[in-house]
Amino acid sequence: MTASPTPPTSRSRRSAGDRRAQLVQIGLELLPTTPIQELTIDAVARRAGISRSLLFHYFATKREYYTAVTRAAADLMWAHLQPRPGTPADEQVAGMLDRYVGWVETYRESHLAFVRGAGGGDPWVADVYAETRQRLVEVALSTLGLPDDALRRQLVLAWFAFAEDLVGSWADEPTLSRPELLALLREILDRLVRSGH
């Protein structure tokens, strides 16, 4: 009798780390059209080809899964906004602003849900949001060549709040051209920074 061919690796053979990464990636793929709070565990499990109960083997609760996806999305945004290596210092801020506007355009509903979830008191969103904001403030201060002190942090954080609101509403109703929006954001940032000197 001919030996049976080696069976293909089954889905259950994935390591726990690989399966968690796959499930988070599915969440990320759904974010452009589905805010994190609206992702259903059933839809994610079905797309992964596993049962709902198996998903909870890798993530103990729905909140743990949502937190993992939110954190992964925040990490992607942070990496996306980083100045490109070799970019002249005077072009770095403009590039970051342009990439931020593009990010909100692509992930408008999810980004809005992220910001509102943090403001609405969802602890798992608020923690990730606060961490992301602090990382972005540090990048902005470094890019602008400013000292990292309490006043500058407050000013840049205030600017981020303004930028989030303006870009979010602009993505929904563009009352300015994109270049005009970018120029306005940069002008207000420059004014705030100068007021801290």
UniProtKB/TrEMBL annotation:
Superkingdom, taxonomy of origin: Bacteria
MF (Gene Ontology): DNA-binding transcription factor activity; transcription cis-regulatory region binding
UniProt cross-references to Pfam families, sorted A to Z: TetR_C_46 (PF21943), TetR_N (PF00440)
Sorted UniProt keywords: DNA-binding, Transcription, Transcription regulation
Portion annotated as DNA-binding: 40-59
Domain spans labelled HTH tetR-type: 17-77
Record PANTHER family: HTH-TYPE TRANSCRIPTIONAL REGULATOR RUTR, TRANSCRIPTIONAL REGULATORY PROTEIN (PROBABLY TETR-FAMILY)-RELATED
Protein's recorded name: Transcriptional regulator, TetR family
